[in-house]
Amino acid sequence: MRTAQLRAAQGELVHAGKMAALGQMSAGVVHELNQPLTAMRNLSDSASILLDQDRFDDVRGNLHRIRGMVDRLGLLTSQLKIFAHKSELPCVPVQLAHSVADAQFIVAEALNKHGVAIEVDLQPAMVSVMAEEAALGSVLVNLVKNSIDAMQEAPLRTLRLEARSQDGRVTLTVSDTGPGIHSDILPRLFEPFVTSKPEGAGLGLGLVISAQLVRAMDGTLRASNRKEGGACFAFELPAAITAIPKE
Question: Averaged over 11-22, what is the pLDDT?
């Protein structure tokens, strides 16, 4: 009973932390919403004038741009919804090999498109962690996609996922051969709306959400630059205790 109460209290603290972070994000969220909303208003006003002039191709172009902005707003609100969601599902044993395979399948097209080779080294091969399967998958896909994006201009494009188990914890690293993380961004990487991607290519919320999801699973997420070049993201989760078969 005491363990259940401690877990419930921990869940409340994590959720309270998310709400506090959302409060800190509010100014940035307003900015992110206002820009496309203002542009959409201008484009719709312009479309009315263009219609009166029978300039249908220009109207179609405006509608296409409005659709892109709606998609961007949808991405922002969906990420915020995930971030604020109070999870009620308990962590269960999840085999990392399955989660990694699922992530590979999801990003397969991007891997092929950008010529990225992927290496997977999980030791032991059947290592399992205590996690929410959907949340773990979301974090993995986000980290892998970020690495693929970072390597688009790199001469060597190799993505490596490596897992090691020690003292009841499992550390999974996602490393790449890209340019690494800018020194001015690295200390603030897990702050809302901090991103090195070009404007419009990323909202700077993916890593914030990933860090919160990992924290909610009693884990940690950190980033560093590799000595040999490229970035490395490492997240640690509790190892799943597997039953020892009786002889």
Answer: 54
